[in-house]
């Protein structure tokens, strides 16, 4: 039984395959790891497959799986999962975009109890080198969509990651495109994750496979994971949607509290300005308490920040949401001529989105590790 399996998906990688296999093996030996190297190839037309066969003669831990149908990077990695001969799996590109030197650290983080360990380009200490502007823009957009489903993960579309095999053992993966990690996050069984920074280096040899088709497949993947989460409430994506729904319920309760307090204060003879001030303040406090105790009760930030710190952050974010609501309503009403009741509803919706995502990130977001 191997300690870990490193999956290397390939297609026409004759220029890189010898070097990456030797580099991974060197890392194994330097860190006393008994590791399997599993090359999963999409029936390359160059010398990738013969080169791997040649390596197998002198390296008993090198295996190759040649796929003749349904080609694609994600499909290759997913099939590699089922052929891995260990309980810990690491996925790495063949072109040295991902540093093999981080393999031992990923392995150690899994051994410490993490279900998924992600090489992150977008956390402090990470980065991207030699990428043209177009690829940067596409990557940032893809990362943004991924973080809507997994806001605590800074790089949910990384191609460099480690998992416990049990995470994907029963997962109904529908691999497509190049974002297999997002599929694992959305449909795998996991609780604890860890990100470690690395600097992504664009491929030195060979050609990039990024195409418009990849962008379309990614959008389909995000939609599929979203629908999957609605039907499978044990998924990680559903945990986030559940927070959104709870946040919405709390928001509705805040509207009721606001209206009720306003009516009572006006009936008591308090001025309209003061009645509005107190009703809004109390409704924000109501929303904070319910979100702190219910919506985000599992947030680790509650353990390292005080009640008053979180309350202050919540009021600040809510003030921003109120300004957005008011600004959009005025803009659409007086500049475009839309009905004020409709523009107010639009402002409320945009303000809700602002309040959720900003509070999710600032008030109850993941603390720096």
Describe what you observe in this structure.
With 369 residues, this protein is α/β, with parallel strands linked by helices. It has two domains: 4-232, Spore Coat Polysaccharide Biosynthesis Protein SpsA, Chain A (Alpha-Beta Complex); 238-363. 54% of the residues lie in helices and 12% in strands. It is built from twelve helices and nine strands. It has helices at 17-30, 48-56, 73-83, 103-111, 133-149, 180-187, 212-231, 236-267, 272-295, 301-304, 307-335, 340-363; strands at residues 4-10, 35-41, 62-66, 88-91, 116-120, 127-129, 161-164, 193-197, 199-201. Strands 3-2-1-4-7-5-8 form a seven-stranded mixed sheet, sandwiched between helices. Helix 1 links the parallel strand 1 and strand 2 (35-41). The longest helix has 32 residues, at 236-267. The chain is elongated. The mean pLDDT is 89.
